[in-house]
Specification:
Chain lengths: 133, 271
């Protein structure tokens, strides 16, 4: 069974705040449905723009099979920083899973799909009335 | 030449007719835009069901219509969930679904679309009250008013074997009296609008596109056949989202080049 490290946030992301226990519940459920061996989640620091914990998990990647974040929108907003993360996962031939969206990325095509979702999400606030609620 | 130029239009007469019908009735029924694709989807679902239950059959549509003779109601949801997983595990299935209504969606919604990540399946056995969908409008539960539902029956649907919808021209009364109507339960609500509802008569191979902002639902199927239908939502990628967000519920399927260029554009640094 593939060993995957959970990754959750202790601050809001993209305007959403999800309690940590709920993030972990979603990740556990995702792992159970996808036959993944869930390793206790790393909790990202609350300071704005911090990705120190994610960097630690990336350092741990050679010993595990991948990362399961609660949401793909917990990745850095900065396009280049996001690309660096994708590259480091691709280089090691590992996987990045996103529990809320039910997505799995392990190839360049998969990461391109993730990046498109990110770019649309970032563009929406510039569209008139992009969010109803 | 002047006469020709003066008769040019941004929207063709055919597109306009479909749009007018959609606005007026709140739905359109169109022939599926690719019958081979529909037949493949219908065959795939029948095969999956038969595989799960170890059945054999000669004709997919007959097998689905007569399914109630071969299953007990308590087992129905487990089968439904397994089949939904199977269809969504096929990389071709959502693309096939889109191709059943591509031109109509381009006309009614737009050509730069987001599609629901998972296609749903409903099964309504005759006289089964467990799969009822009481009258509702999706937008009242968090869907964006910019979404349409593409509803694809796998068998002919008629009378109580189909779904109902309140046509747009009757909706003004509901909206005006909503406070009063919402005091009762959904059955009271249904009774108050029953006389104005339209029951969508639709054949296997046809596609229903409906405005989910309008009240709709189904009743106990009192016909002698099982109803099988799929549903999936579409919206313009850059139109407002409700509680069903990009990534978790919708995914862009037809982003155009210039949108990709625009999304990647950064002003040059000046400092």
């Amino acid at each position: 069974m593939n060993k995957v490290r959970g990754y959750i946030f202790s601050r809001p992301f993209m305007g959403e705040r999800i309690p940590q226990n709920i993030q972990n519940l979603a990740i556990r459920d995702f792992c159970s449905k996808n036959d993944l061996d869930f390793l206790l989640s790393a909790t990202e620091y609350a300071m704005a723009d911090s990705f120190l914990m994610l960097a630690n998990v990336l350092d741990e990647l050679p010993q595990i099979d991948g990362i399961v974040a609660y949401s793909l929108f917990q990745l850095p907003e900065n396009d280049q920083e996001r690309q660096l993360i994708f590259q480091s996962i691709l280089k090691l031939n590992k996987s990045f899973y996103f529990a809320l969206e039910g997505l799995h990325a392990s190839t360049a095509t998969d990461f391109s799909r993730i990046d498109t979702l990110w770019k649309v999400k970032k563009t929406l606030p510039r569209c008139y009335l992009s969010q109803l609620v | 030449m002047n006469d020709y130029l003066n008769h040019l239009s941004f929207i063709s007469a055919e597109e306009n007719a479909l749009a007018q019908e959609f606005q007026k009735k709140g739905y359109v029924v169109i022939p599926g835009e690719n019958s081979k694709i529909f037949e493949s989807m219908q065959a795939f679902i029948a095969q999956e069901v038969a595989k799960i239950l170890n059945h054999s059959y000669d004709n997919a549509e007959v097998y689905l219509n007569e399914f109630h003779h071969k299953i007990d109601v308590p087992d129905l949801n487990a089968i439904r969930v397994k089949v939904i997983s199977a269809i969504n595990a096929q990389s071709w299935f959502r693309k096939a679904y889109y191709h059943l209504a591509k031109n109509a969606l381009n006309n009614l919604v737009g050509n730069e679309l987001a599609m629901q990540v998972r296609v749903n399946l409903s099964i309504q056995l005759p006289n089964d009250s467990s799969s009822l969908l009481p009258v509702h409008a999706d937008v009242w539960s968090g869907d964006s008013p910019f979404e349409v539902v593409v509803w694809v029956p796998l068998v002919n649907c008629y009378q109580t074997k189909t779904m109902f919808i309140l046509p747009h021209h009757h909706y003004a009364d509901v909206s005006k009296n909503f406070k009063e109507l919402s005091k009762g339960n959904s059955e009271d609500f249904y009774q108050s609008i029953e006389k104005d509802l339209e029951w969508v008569n639709i054949k296997a191979g046809e596609v229903l596109i409906f405005n989910q902002n309008l009240p709709h639902g189904n009743r106990i199927n009192t016909e002698s056949e099982t109803r099988w239908s799929m549903n999936c939502r579409f919206k313009g990628v850059f139109t407002p989202y409700g509680d069903k967000k990009i990534g978790e519920f919708f995914e862009p399927i037809t982003l155009k080049s210039l949108s990709q260029i625009g999304m990647n554009y950064h002003f040059p640094d000046i400092v």
